[in-house]
Write a structure and sequence with these properties.
- The chain is built from 10 helices and 11 strands.
- It is α/β, with parallel strands linked by helices.
- The chain folds into 2 domains: 5-65 and 193-223, Response regulator (Rossmann fold); 67-191 and 227-243, Rossmann fold (3-Layer(aba) Sandwich).
- The longest helix has 16 residues, at 194-209.
- The chain is elongated, with a radius of gyration of 20 Å.
- The two termini are 40 Å apart.
Length: 245
């Protein structure tokens, strides 16, 4: 059994899969991008394959996060805190995870707000910052924002802090932020089940290696939404916390 194969670069992923296919291995765990044809070379050879966090369209086991449900739950938490114009900074539109989270957000805010308050970015800090800047520049700015990963959340927090708005505009991040407790108190965060994801994928693969021949299974896991402190955190405390980062 080889280590997991994961790459956002389809050409690089194809090379990895070619190597995996040429070696005498028991099975493969991978987070695929868009190379179903290459993956089928592995499955055609009889090797068990388990996909992690992305669907492949192939008859193989998969371990997923229930992204749509997660996006809806996080957005509902912001609504419960009194926010009404909740924007979404989503990653690239061709990635299943980010689209699922954005769909969950849309389920809660409705199609009208979704058309005005959705911005796609590149899953990086700079992308989150640019998207947050764009949202603030719009005629009627949002009173809260959800980002579909933690790096874009960092960018959004940086921009809001620079404008003195972090204590005013609600923030929810799917993922965890590397910020001090003062920031964590006012940002809704999600602890993703990364370890559980890997352990479950390994368990499924070992079952297949040991002869399990039941139909392919898809296991969906849930993230843990971390509660925020409802109390007020002053701008001075926020600025002091950010300056120590």
């Amino acid at each position: 059994m080889r280590p997991p194969v994961e790459s956002a670069d389809p050409a690089k992923e194809t090379r990895y899969l070619d190597i995996a296919n040429s070696e005498d291995m028991a099975g493969v765990i991978l987070a695929p991008s868009s190379v179903d044809g290459e993956i089928s070379h592995l499955t055609d050879s009889g090797r068990p394959v388990v996909a992690v966090d992305r669907r492949t369209g192939l008859d193989i086991d998969a371990v997923m996060i229930d992204n749509r449900r997660l996006g809806a739950e996080v957005t509902a938490r912001l609504q419960a805190r009194g926010y009404h114009r909740i924007a979404c900074i989503a990653g690239p539109s061709d990635l299943e995870a980010t689209e699922g989270r954005a769909l969950g957000w849309r389920d809660v805010v409705g199609p009208g707000d979704a058309a005005r308050l959705l911005v796609h970015a590149d899953y990086r800090v700079a992308g989150g910052a640019l998207a947050m800047t764009e949202l603030l520049a719009r005629g009627e700015r949002p009173d809260a924002v959800m980002t579909t990963n933690n790096l874009m959340g960092v960018g959004a927090v940086q921009v809001l802090a620079a404008h003195g708005l972090l204590a005013e505009i609600g923030v929810a991040v799917i993922g965890e932020l590397p910020y001090p407790p003062a920031i964590a108190r006012i940002v809704t965060q999600v602890r993703l089940p990364a370890r559980h994801l890997g352990n479950t994928a390994a368990s499924l693969l070992l079952d297949r290696i040991n002869g399990d021949d039941q139909p392919p299974r898809t296991v969906e896991l849930r993230g843990e939404v971390l509660e925020v402190d409802a109390g007020h955190v002053s701008s001075d405390v926020i600025d002091s916390s950010l300056s120590r980062m």
